[in-house]
Amino acid sequence: MARWERAEATTPRPDPAPWDDPAPGPDADAPLVLAAEGPHGPVIHAANVAAMQAGAVRGGRVTDARALCPDLQVIPADLAGDAAALERLVLWARRWCPWSAVDGADGMVLDTTGSDHLWGGEAAMLADMETRLEALGQSVRIALAPTHGAAWALARYGDAREICGGPALKARVAMLPVAALRLDGTTLLTLRRLGLKRAGDLMAIPRATLERRFGRDGKALATPLRRLDQMTGALPEPVVSAAPPRRFRVVRRLPEPVMDPQSLLEEPMTDLCADLAQAGCGLRGLRLELYRTDGTATRLESGCARANRDAAHLIRLLSRHFESLDAGFGFDTLSLEALRVEDMAAAQVRLDGGIDSELAVATLIDRLSARLGGQAVQMPDPRASHLPERAEGWAPALRGGRADLLAPGGLGGGGMVAPARDRPVRLLQVPERIEVLYAVPEGPPVRFKWRRKPYLIRRHQGPERIAPEWWRARPGTRLRDYYKVEVAEGARYWLFREGMAGDGRGDEPDWFLHGMFA
Amino acid sequence: MTDPDLPTFTEAFSNTRDGAGTGLVLAQIDAWLGADGARDGPILWVQDRTAAREGGLPCLRGIAGTGLQMPILRVGARNAADALWAMEEGLECAALSAVVGEVWGNPRSLDFTATKRLALRSRRSGVPVWLLRPDGVADLSVAPDRWRVDPAPSADNPWDARAPGQARWWADLFRTRRGAPTRWVAGHDRAAHRVDLAAALSDGTLGTGGGDDAATGPRAVG
């Protein structure tokens, strides 16, 4: 007898992957809803218990709920993140049985046939599932039934941890509401208008009548009759279990401990790269685990800017770690594992013997990042902003993703427009305050002191007024008036005055030096 | 490099308090590489920590304003040794259009041997390298061209008499293999992709064996 177990992981979960981040999010007792974009503004995607009690309903407008409960917290729902987290949860749930699949947006189905005795019976297995899933921060409703459809219905409309056996199945599902039949909204509305409230009401109607009424409008797969048959087991409904992602890992057990494993890396690395090449993949991250004879293990990791399966290059990336490796009494096992595997097509080498410049730059980024750290190698991450320090963003080059930034044809490729304004060639990381020695009412100061040296301004250009970004800035942030000035020695600087006298946002405005012109 | 006469290794001494050294280096990159668009790979811009803290980071929009079309890959090294290693590593990669390194002051790791290594790698791969020495003092180096750059009063602004115009620098080529060391007033001609060098008339040492081409009138490199 097929036994289906069905668990529903209920939202809200503000964090899509709570098991990655044990830090608690918002206060659990405060009313909280997750909002998704609807056709007429944000709609409540999920709500916690406090919000439900305050009047929030799933599918309702956020504005309505806010009117009922002014201190309602609203967080945008991350639907894609939820789906990805659910997929990982499904793979994790194979600890109980080997066959599991995602079911809808917020559920999963496990085929536990023949697995329950390993956990001490069905009731004990369900209790174990609930405990472990709750330890992950999920609130769940679980039910066990002989068919997929019945398990789905009992998890949502049955009792807590309900187990329904085969002989009692038909009588049990007859008591469930028609909504438990997984029908669409219009069919449910029709059934309600016909006065059919429970699944038992449908069972009492002759099959031919049901088929004639609902079977013709092109929804042959989800008619009430089919759903009833699936629920009672008259129609099969197999679960398609996704194959787990392939792991690329090569383990070598050495005949005797070695102190320097570097020379032994080449053969397993070649094997790993051959595996990757056969699967048409490349790795973005590589982990080398070295197991010492005394039982401790060392993990070394490296990253790549783009998918790679070149053994020589990958060995070179790891070589930095061997400088400070503590071998103890030697290593007896080593394993190489590909992390973050991505598709990578085989590429044609150039017939003229030239280099693939994109690949050459990517491997350079790998080598630099492997030694100097991922944060040290940066590429432009320009943003559309008038504030210079925000517009001039830098992002770790290893992260990749913005290939357009390194593409030829302009700084920032398509991400940045041509400069409309005169900008300095060097920008200080933090604007430095200058001391005004002699100010005039209009324009920049005539004399100022920067880094303990006085300067006399001969020429100036400006101001260029840059207002704070009110949609991001804190209240009270002051505007900036930028001047390009030239001092007596000839150096050209970019000064700004933060705020204006009498703007009601603080005292006398301060002057700062932000950059140097060529 | 398009012109075999031009050196692949240039050293420029400047002050962290101004952008003159950066300006001259960018102008030279534009003059030597930007003219024919032969190179479109990124520029590797390596800074050690002090240079980045004292002199700031290269500003992308400002650099785009000087006419350079190449993207920039920035390396923020912890110290001069790491910066020099990153420059050497970058010079191995022929896909780069240029390597610019900023090493602040006179660290111990930047000695004659280090410059020799840079020069050899640069010659082997053909990637030109500029070594910016903010607040540095000229010591032993193999660089064929060594400049000392200071800001000079800018040209007249045709649109606003009170505003600074096009940037100019005192460029002192105090060591070169292509003639006698000379001091110029340098400027960047963006339209023609060249560095304009005009004789520094206020310089008293003018004419002491500078050669004809250096002493009379403007001269262009690139």
Question: Could you please describe the fold and organization of this structure?
Answer:
- The complex is a heterodimer of chains A (518) and B (222).
- With 518 residues, chain A is α+β, with helices and mostly antiparallel strands.
- Chain A has 4 domains: 183 residues, Reverse transcriptase/Diguanylate cyclase domain (Alpha-Beta Plaits, 2-Layer Sandwich), CATH 3.30.70; 118 residues, DNA polymerase, Y-family, little finger domain (Dna Ligase, domain 1, 2-Layer Sandwich); 38 residues, no CATH class; 91 residues, no CATH class.
- In chain A, strands 15-16-17-18-19-20 form a 6-stranded antiparallel β-barrel. A 5-stranded mixed beta sheet of chain A has the order 5-6-1-7-8. A 4-stranded antiparallel beta sheet of chain A has the order 9-12-10-11.
- The radius of gyration of chain A is 32 Å and the shape is flat.
- Chain B is an alpha/beta fold and 222 residues long.
- Chain B has a single domain, classed as Rossmann fold (3-Layer(aba) Sandwich), CATH 3.40.50.
- Chain B has a 10-stranded mixed beta sheet with strand order 4-2-5-6-1-7-8-9-10-11, sandwiched between helices.
- In chain B, helix 4 runs parallel beside helix 5.
- Chain B is globular, with a radius of gyration of 17 Å.
- About 7% of the residues of chain B have low confidence.
- Chains A and B meet through helix 13, strand 13, strand 15, strand 17 and strand 18 of A and helix 1, helix 2, strand 3, helix 3 and strand 4 of B.
- Strand 15 of chain A pairs antiparallel with strand 3 of chain B.
- Chain B: InterPro entries: P-loop_NTPase (IPR027417).
- Chain B: This is Protein ImuA.
